Amino acid sequence: MSKSDIYFQRTCRNHFWLGGEKAQQKLKSLRVGIAGLGGMGSGVALTLARLGVTQFTLADPDTVEITNLNRQVIADHTTIGKTKLEATVEALKKIDPDIHVEGFDQGITEESVNLFLSNVDVVIDEIDVFPVEAHKTLHREARKRNLDLYSAYVIGLGIHLYRFTNNHYSLDEFYQPIYDATKSLADGLIQTFVRPEPEYFKDNSLSGYTSEVEAGNVPIFGPSCLLGHSLVSMRMVLDYMQSQKLELPFSYEQTPCMPEYIVVDPITFSISKHNLEKDHHLYNLKSS
């Protein structure tokens, strides 16, 4: 059996939903850049590989730690101490040895970002929440290249899905003015991302959550990462299929672009679309 035959056999359960083998071939030729290979990014990479993506550009400077075991698909007792890039590549190759990866073990920096983005068709930003400048560097250069950029973040127990495009709301607009006006990095991040505030936060003080973030330990419930990387993978792939003028076997609305974004809350059984510029009444957070 040829490599092509093996590929289409292993992906055959996708074909109906993508629009047939022609659509699957489009996905095979797609090159995805994923920055950040933690609980969300490594899961996105493996999910996309199972869907049939075979070309990746990956970046992460960190190593797998024991605290990653609660959520990261690449984390187990054999990978602790390995770089997240190495562990992700090994996991991808177990799915398909012919997957091609270009890796950046220094992560996203001013020096690496142009090469990282040089051959990609779409970008997934799952860099850790704390290195804000790395996010800004990635978004700035992706915007110059007119690349769609997706991010899924665990917010409480749920997920926020953001899509940034060249002619819409930018990451700088997202961070400002709230982020720059806050007293600490932790407070700035919470005020920026935790909006709207989940219902279960409204009955309790955010002080405990804030203390965890200030200590560098964002509370993350493992299943939420699975929800997030599945959501961003699905939406990105279906958006791409539609952008290629391929007919999907169902009605499909493109993922909204920022300032509109998707909120998934598994506690209240809700999936909703929000707008940062219009829904100001939703963003009155308690900081203590």
Q: Your description of this structure?
A:
This protein has 288 residues and is α/β, with parallel strands linked by helices. The protein has a single domain, classed as NAD(P)-binding Rossmann-like Domain (Rossmann fold). The protein is built from 13 helices and eight strands. It has an eight-stranded mixed beta sheet, with helices on both faces. A hairpin with a 2-residue loop joins strand 5 and strand 6. Helix 4 runs parallel beside helix 5, helix 4 packs across helix 13 and helix 10 crosses helix 12. The protein starts with a helix and ends in a 13-residue tail after the last strand.
In short:
This protein has helices spanning 3-10, 15-18, 21-29, 41-51, 84-95, 113-117, 132-144, 171-175, 178-181, 185-193, 199-202, 207-214, 222-243, and strands at 31-35, 55-59, 100-104, 122-125, 149-155, 158-164, 260-265, 270-275.
Give the low-pLDDT segments. 283-288
How many domain units?
A: 1
- Approximate helicity band: 25-40%
What is the average of the pLDDT values? 92
> Helix/strand-derived class?
alpha/beta
Q: Given the C-alpha coordinates, what overall shape results?
A: globular
What is the CATH C-level name? Answer: Alpha Beta
- Estimate the strand proportion: 15-25%
Q: Spatial order of the strands in the main sheet?
A: 3-2-1-4-5-6-7-8
Topology:
Layout: H1 3-10, H2 15-18, H3 21-29, E1 31-35, H4 41-51, E2 55-59, H5 84-95, E3 100-104, H6 113-117, E4 122-125, H7 132-144, E5 149-155, E6 158-164, H8 171-175, H9 178-181, H10 185-193, H11 199-202, H12 207-214, H13 222-243, E7 260-265, E8 270-275
Parallel strand pairs: 1-2, 1-4, 2-3, 4-5
Antiparallel strand pairs: 5-6, 6-7, 7-8
